[in-house]
Amino acid sequence: MNAISPKKRRSARERAVQFLFGLDFTKYDWRSAIETFWLSSPVNASVKDYAELLIDGVAGHLEELDGAIDGSLDRWTPDRIGRVERNILRVALFEMRYLDDVPTPVAINEAIEVAKRFGAEDAPRFINGVLDRLKKGN
Fold first, then answer.
1. Which of 34, 84, 115, 118 is the right S-S partner for 124, CB 3.0 to 4.6 Å?
2. Smallest Cα–Cα separation from 123: which of 17, 41, 26, 19?
3. What are phi and psi of 90, to 5 degrees?
4. CB 44: neighbour CB atoms within 10 A?
5. Which helix (H) or strand (E) holds 21?
6. Is 15 helix (H, G, I), strand (E, B) or coil?
7. How many CA atoms lie within 13 A of 22 on its CB side?
8. Angle, nearest 10°, between helix axes 30-40 and 45-60?
9. 36 Cβ partners below 8 Å, 6+ apart?
10. Are 74 and 129 contacting, i.e. CB atoms less than 8 angstroms apart?
11. For residue range 9-39, what is the model confidence (pLDDT) as tens digits?
12. What is the pLDDT of residues 31-65, one digit of tens each?
């Protein structure tokens, strides 16, 4: 992966979560919808490239990621996870499992920060707990 600053990676993660959240409603193939998203939410090329890497990775491993997330829930059922939180978990778990240049603690911390911005009030603690269980299961 090309060198991209931590700030730009955070922006890319946020954009990926926003896009994936919308995709949960439309069920479109992500490739057919991405250009419209960028028109309404423009970013620089490095943010766009990293966000698309995350989106493609999540889309390509969706069943596996969701299965792992659902299997790591403690006293929760999968249908209780909000769509924002589920997409934050998907992005973080994809980074943890498939991107060698993202250390697991960084992926977890970034997911918590994205949850603080976009998730429900208890989302950061929930995200941390699920990803910690997933980290131990890796």
1. 115
2. 17
3. -60, -50
4. 11
5. helix 6-26
6. helix
7. 17
8. 150
9. none
10. yes
11. 999 999 999 999 999 999 889 999 999 999 9
12. 999 999 999 999 999 999 999 999 999 999 999 99
Q: Could you tell me the pTM of the whole model?
A: 0.94
State phi, psi for 5 to the nearest 5 degrees.
-65, 155
Question: Does position 138 have pLDDT exceeding 90, yes or no?
Answer: no
Reading the block at residue 9, the tokens are: 């990676």
Decide if pLDDT at 1 tops 60.
no
Q: What DSSP assignment string belongs to 33-94?
A: HHHHHHHHS---HHHHHHHHHHHHHHHHTHHHHHHHHHHT-SS--GGGS-HHHHHHHHHHHH
| CA dist 94 → 32, 34, 41, 55, 66 (Å) | 22, 19, 23, 9, 10
Provide the token pair at 110. 């970034």
